[in-house]
Write a structure and sequence with these properties.
single chain; 628 residues; alpha+beta; Dihydrodipicolinate Reductase, domain 2; 20 helices
């Protein structure tokens, strides 16, 4: 088999990130006149041009490996991946040179005769008469931003995020971003079509940054949760160390007080003060070390143009009418949403107000008295302060005491006397919502199904929860991380007494024991009845059945099978453990040794780091080899 054919086989299975990094590095280096030659699969030799040698710290020759296994084979090569020295240098070089290019999506044929029907199936004009007038090809533009986000605390993690901003609507286009990856490009449109009006690049950049900041929030919360767990463990270690020192000093101080040795007493007191200062310094130091910072770098932008079909329509309601444009996107083979004139959101469902504003259903409504269509930008949009119905200026009534707007049915029922009570209710509601959000954000790192369960639990029980609840959850997570089951059991027992309707607490409490008891069996059954959709509750129940003995082994296997069925993709440890425990049952009680090995191998397929399964396989194969 030739080397080229081997490369082809390897490349067909390689990681998408490796492809992106290799393509980015190759294009950047070639654009500045650097020679890069691939002599083997994901292995290249690079000769830096003299102009940019200083940028690479005086080195002009590099050997690069874009794959971890290739880097191990070529120890002299620089491994190029996220956060590596060479990739950071290339990104920095690209940022300095402002790598911006202009591309045009290759035009595709469009059957214009069928467009009006397709548009009618996608866009809804509420209670309006719509007339198709004409259509024509027009060039629209996008700006593709490529950002590098670096999350830096005591560790560093890099992430590449791309955002595509529609320069004509000013919105981030997620569907088009996915389609751009498979589109064909050319350097220019090679046409004389008109160009649609565009937003400025500064505006598009602002939209991209705002969207990016929203997108990285879940990642920031995830990293902060890990940091808080690690920080709690480190703080606890520091506190225990200095508590031990202080106890020894206080013991010496008691003896000195009995002997009334003033010089010794003063020396011990000085040491206690210094211990307190040093304790706080260490805590401040570790907090500063674990502080999280996110750095955003724009390293590439591309102006992308595309020929679309702009369709002109006349929209009419009674005596009010206006023209509007609906755009057909040949790449998506779909209609693009309209933009609300009032709030600027994208929508497929629009309405026409009496002043010719075309808006979404949130911004345009009908006067409850005269049925005139009004919108929020007309200046005639009002709501009754009692029932909330929409009113135009001609139909509204105004309270003489407070100036509130009223409909005819509530002229004598103004709420001005209840204003204080309403404000208090609103404030209380906001306070409760903020508290729910605060508690949900403070939850430790959990699987998706468990996170959903705990979020709903917090909503229902927010009035019962306090700061001790949050602290207890993090202490449990910390104890389980260091496999301190006794500490976790103590905290879980207290939580179960105070909050007896939490299935997660009950299941976790059962799993901290190494023995069977009727009480624990009842506790695990109760957890399953409270949350039958959670894999962790069935794990606890199966664990107790397994501890009970031979009479329940069939039921034990059934419960572990439920765990495998219910567990999500982010609960691999539960799935691997379920396969492992079924294998133990097959080994110890049905003597199906090969069936047990098969289950343990499945556990390792799901979680390669699940060491009990690996040890069991080694032991069993050694035993079978001795027998057969």
């Amino acid at each position: 088999m030739s080397n080229e054919w081997k490369w082809y086989i390897n490349m067909s299975h390689e990681d998408a990130d490796v492809v992106k990094i290799r393509s980015f590095v190759t294009k950047c280096l070639e654009s500045v006149g650097t020679l890069i030659e691939f002599t083997a699969y994901n292995y290249a030799e690079v000769l830096i041009s003299d102009e940019f040698v200083d940028h690479f710290d005086g080195e002009n020759y590099y050997k690069l490996a874009f794959d971890f296994d290739v880097a191990r084979q070529h120890e002299e090569a620089e491994f190029v991946t996220y956060g590596s020295y060479f990739l950071d240098k290339v990104i920095d070089l690209a940022s300095q040179r402002g790598l911006t290019c202009k591309r045009h999506i290759v035009d595709s044929d469009v059957e214009l005769r069928n467009l009006p029907q397709k548009i009618a199936n996608r866009i809804t004009f509420r209670n309006c008469r719509v007339t198709f007038m004409t259509n024509s090809p027009v060039i629209y533009n996008y700006l593709l931003f490529s950002f590098k986000v670096s999350y830096v605390s005591d560790e560093r993690e890099d992430q590449i995020i791309k955002l595509l901003v529609n320069l004509n609507t000013g919105h981030v286009d997620i569907r088009m971003l996915e389609a751009v990856g498979s589109a064909f490009f050319t350097d220019s449109s090679h046409t004389n079509y008109g160009i649609e009006n565009m937003q400025s690049v500064e505006y598009a950049y602002g939209v991209a940054i705002k969207t990016l900041e929203q997108q990285i929030q879940p990642k920031i919360r995830e990293i902060r949760t890990k940091i808080e767990i690690r920080l709690a463990f480190e703080k606890n270690r520091i506190m225990e160390y200095y508590d031990q020192i202080d106890n020894e000093l206080k013991s010496k101080l008691e003896k000195l007080n009995e002997s009334k040795n003033k010089e010794g007493i003063n020396a011990i007191n000085d040491k206690l003060r210094l211990s307190a200062i040093e304790r706080q310094r260490r805590i401040n130091e570790i907090e500063e070390k674990n502080a999280l910072n996110a750095y955003i770098t724009l390293f590439n932008s591309t102006l992308i143009s595309q020929t679309k079909i702009r369709n002109k329509y006349n929209v009419k309601r009674g005596k009010t009418e206006r023209d509007t444009y609906v755009v057909w996107n040949p790449v998506l083979k779909d209609v693009e949403p309209l933009v609300c004139d009032i709030c600027g959101t994208e929508t497929f469902d629009v309405d026409l107000c009496s002043n010719s504003h075309l808006g979404c259903m949130e911004c345009v409504s009908s006067c409850s008295e005269c049925n005139t269509r009004i919108c929020k930008s007309c200046g005639t949009f009002n709501e009754c302060c009692v029932c909330g119905v929409s009113l135009c200026d001609r139909c509204k009534s105004v309270c003489e005491n407070c100036g509130d707007v009223l409909c005819k049915g509530h002229i004598e029922s103004c709420t001005c006397k209840e204003e204080t009570r309403r404000e208090e209710q609103k404030a209380e509601k906001r306070k409760k919502e903020d508290r729910i959000l605060e508690f949900q954000q403070s939850l430790p790192q959990l699987s998706r199904s468990m996170k959903h369960y705990m979020d709903e639990y917090v909503k229902k029980n927010i009035d019962l929860l306090d700061e001790n609840w949050k602290k207890a959850l993090f202490k449990i997570q910390t104890a389980l991380t260091v496999e301190d089951k006794l500490k976790a059991r103590e905290i879980l027992s207290e939580l179960d007494e105070k909050y007896p309707d939490n299935a997660w607490v009950k299941a976790r409490l059962v799993l901290t024991y190494e023995r069977f008891s009727t009480k624990l069996m009842s506790l695990s059954r109760h957890a399953v009845s409270m949350a039958p959709q959670l894999a962790i509750t069935h794990t606890a129940f199966a664990y107790m059945l397994q501890k009970r003995g031979a009479l329940t082994y069939d039921q034990t296997v059934d419960e572990y099978e439920k765990v495998i069925k219910l567990a999500g993709n982010d609960e691999t440890n539960l799935i691997a453990n379920a396969h492992y425990q079924i294998g133990k049952v097959l080994q110890d009680h049905t003597y199906d040794w090969w069936g047990a090995i098969n289950r343990w191998e499945k556990a390792l397929e799901i979680d390669p780091h699940f060491s009990p399964a690996r040890q069991a396989i080694s032991y069993m194969k050694a035993s079978l080899k001795g027998r057969f």
